[in-house]
Amino acid sequence: MARPRLTAEAYIEGIRQGERTILARGLTLLESKRAEDTTLASEVLTALWPAAYQTGFRIAVTGPPGAGKSTLIEELGMAAIASGRNVAVLAIDPSSGVSQGSILADKTRMDRLSQAERAYVRPTPAGRHLGGTAEATRECLALVQAAGFDLVLIETVGVGQSEIEVAAMADMVLLALAPAAGDELQGVKRGIVEVADVVAITKAEGELAPLAMQAALSYRQGLHLAPPKESGWAVPVLEVSSLAGTGIAALWETLGAYHTHILSNGYFGRQRKAQLENWLAAKIKQTWESRLFENSDYPGALIKAKQAVETGGWVPTIAQNLVAEVLKVG
Amino acid sequence: MARPRLTAEAYIEGIRQGERTILARGLTLLESKRAEDTTLASEVLTALWPAAYQTGFRIAVTGPPGAGKSTLIEELGMAAIASGRNVAVLAIDPSSGVSQGSILADKTRMDRLSQAERAYVRPTPAGRHLGGTAEATRECLALVQAAGFDLVLIETVGVGQSEIEVAAMADMVLLALAPAAGDELQGVKRGIVEVADVVAITKAEGELAPLAMQAALSYRQGLHLAPPKESGWAVPVLEVSSLAGTGIAALWETLGAYHTHILSNGYFGRQRKAQLENWLAAKIKQTWESRLFENSDYPGALIKAKQAVETGGWVPTIAQNLVAEVLKVG
Q1: Tally of CB atoms within 10 A around B158
Q2: Model pTM score
Q3: Interface ipTM above 0.90
């Protein structure tokens, strides 16, 4: 049941016209590691690139599991559509391959947004856990923008360092935190607070309302002590309830205010440029390292060096000379 | 006023006999990037390596600035000496080169420990901000152990990811946190809580005592929610006062209990082995990357690629092909 391969032109035209099926196949193409796909992907990406360079607005939505990111994204997406935006949602799993039970099971998430005419929520293809891998995120962002989606919400579901890497690919970071006890600690321990531009305390409703207020206060105090941001923006902490629908409009306005702020002071363009440089550096490193692994003598040399190290015979600093010698390096 | 160069034998013998001057010069040698020093350092390290392989005990002491790490280390060091240990203290600055005012000014720190016969506190050489760089930490640990110091306290003064890297070189991580408001948040936001094996709430004295108790409670709750450690150890939170001298004995006992725990369940040896593998991998990567930068065509190709990317002409994914071509890679 393999579908016929599309030509580069078919991809380019289809995506330019916002055809969701072609866009979905294009995103899959970008993530493919097969050699023939790589060449095709490069061609498609190059043609569509001008539509993504220094355009659109990309928001990384992050936070610990259970913070209510998906429902918050749905609410924000609907608010964005109402104000004239075309919205795409990408879920990025930096630790792709690891099963994420609760998210997998949640097949009905973003119901309204998925059916909205001016939105594209990347579906979760069978055989993969989530809608995207971190590696091709930058390329995927370019593609959805080329398809006409000028606001991209990136849902990160990973934890730790890789989550911060994904955040560094967006124009801004929205941190979602549930008010439940213990979550405060869980939320901040990942270093993500440092990169957040707006903090949303979710589930500010019913019994949780006082806890949410307390959490918001505590974060405001904490952020007050943080060093000023390079963007010149003071990080606000907002309380929202996706259930009650309260605080969403204010949050959407705040996100817009941030966009305006960084566009007007030039930070938007500077950050995009820096991101391009990082992207280039990452790609160069990747190509360079692949060369190390392609050397047919490498695995043998590595095994020898590892054995010498693990038995205590060699200091790693010396053992690596063996590898360098085999690879004719240094 | 250059001192005469020492031979490898002089280094090896001097360090084996615990001569502090030779040890200090040996540590400086390990950190040197000059080619002739590298060869000498390799020889010295290889000879002294057996004394460090799977021996000794290494504690990374970490925490935000102002948490009282130095005074805590002095107290713990004195307690360790009293129980028969030989103690070395290394201060590691992962972000070496960045001025660290408060630490620089604090020249009299660890007064008693510095003068103790069974202790070695690495002095801060003129012209450098701190006593060590993260890059050579693993090598330096081997050297001080070879000099007879079987307990090494590693004070990390950096922040963020690099601090966690240093922590990953130790057998255990002691996280020091001051009870002052805001510090709770500051302390945890760096992801260091995840790698802590013991948490010490410092300054549990006088007016701060209730705050310390509150902070300890809050951390205990938070840690209760954290996933179990691979070592099978439940992270305790202790209150200490270096000023009043309270809680230090209990803390020292807890550190000893952790040591016994991981020795008896084999985690100590497994962790050391994994650290050796990481060390080897890091060294291979380092040698390999240095080859990229040594290619005389690289800088030119990089500048061209950067320009093409920054003006929006090329996608980084494509631009790196130019670099690969110049370097005859891929």
Answers
A1: 21
A2: 0.70
A3: no
